[in-house]
Design a protein that fits this description.
Length: about 140
């Protein structure tokens, strides 16, 4: 985020790690940083929620809780990391890591835009890593039927 031009943007960063929030508050005093658990703490109603590299660290159950919480915030868009080549979503304990594809079960989200990050980490293993934009009110395929 330190490479993104946020002039004129009301930006709030959130994380469960208190030390990270304190460090970011000190390093970037022009922005607001708060401790939040995306699975249970209330979220503000905003134009865009960015969850980069977050859901791969959560269990499937907590990804669902986070998505419900995001939906309940009344926010408009979600931009989240997804690895599109993966055709299954392995389970992980919270804090671990796995590749996650939000477009397939058990999530089956409906995107409106995809940005390939051209990730070279572990190339070619993660070259399908994307940021995917969702209209939050219309992101669940099964609820649109």
């Amino acid at each position: 985020m330190n490479e993104v031009d946020l002039k004129g943007i009301d930006y709030t960063g959130a994380d469960v790690v208190k030390n990270l929030i304190e460090s970011n508050t000190s390093s970037f005093p022009e922005f607001k940083f708060v401790v939040r658990d995306i699975t249970q703490d209330s979220l503000p109603c905003v134009d865009l929620i960015l969850c980069r590299d977050l859901f791969g660290h959560l269990s499937n159950q907590n990804v669902h809780k986070a998505l419900d919480n995001i939906h309940n915030s009344g926010s408009k868009y979600l931009l989240s990391t997804t690895l599109t080549r993966w055709n299954f979503c392995a389970e992980v304990e919270d804090g671990g890591w796995r590749c996650i594809n939000l477009l397939i079960p058990p999530f089956s989200l409906r995107p409106i835009y995809l940005i390939n990050e051209d990730c070279q980490e572990g190339y070619p293993s993660y070259n399908d890593k994307c940021l995917i934009l969702f209209n939050i009110s219309k992101m669940w395929m099964d609820k649109l039927k």
